[in-house]
User: Which sequence fits this backbone?
């Protein structure tokens, strides 16, 4: 199976492993919200907005995705959005951030997401890629950041 044509990089958020405010994935989630509002988000990402890792990140903060989206649409930096999450959800200490970052980095590696990772690899023609063992690595390959 051939991989679909890669999207325009301007339609993609950053890597799930990029950090903002000490948290991996957080800037990706905010980026997806911003890109969708601008009408630029890669179509393949729209269907899962607020689901999967977006939902996990919101649940980690104890904030709703819809409320977060409304706040992002008001504008502001990642740091300002983080402050809103803390004020409307819960404060995260250094251990919370460390646990979250480890979870994000290893997602799909021998866990509940492993079957989804294998399905996505198969759909993308990457099933033979034994080096792709986490969802963040798959996303970076799928979106063209890594070979």
Assistant:
């Amino acid at each position: 199976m051939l991989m679909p044509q890669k999207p325009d990089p301007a339609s993609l958020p950053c890597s799930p492993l990029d950090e903002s405010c000490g948290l991996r994935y957080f800037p990706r989630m905010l980026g997806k919200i911003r890109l969708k509002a601008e009408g630029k988000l890669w179509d393949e990402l729209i269907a899962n907005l607020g689901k999967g890792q977006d939902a996990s990140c919101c649940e980690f903060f104890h904030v709703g995705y819809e409320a977060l989206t409304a706040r992002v649409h008001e504008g502001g930096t990642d740091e300002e959005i983080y402050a809103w999450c803390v004020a409307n959800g819960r404060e995260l200490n250094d251990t919370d951030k460390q646990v979250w970052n480890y979870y994000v980095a290893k997602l799909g590696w021998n866990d509940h997401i492993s079957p989804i990772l294998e399905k996505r690899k198969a759909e993308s023609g990457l099933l033979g890629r034994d080096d792709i063992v986490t969802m963040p690595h798959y996303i970076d390959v799928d979106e063209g950041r890594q070979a």
In short: The mean pLDDT is 94. The helical segments are 26-37, 43-46, 52-61, 65-73, 78-88, 94-106, 114-123, 135-142.
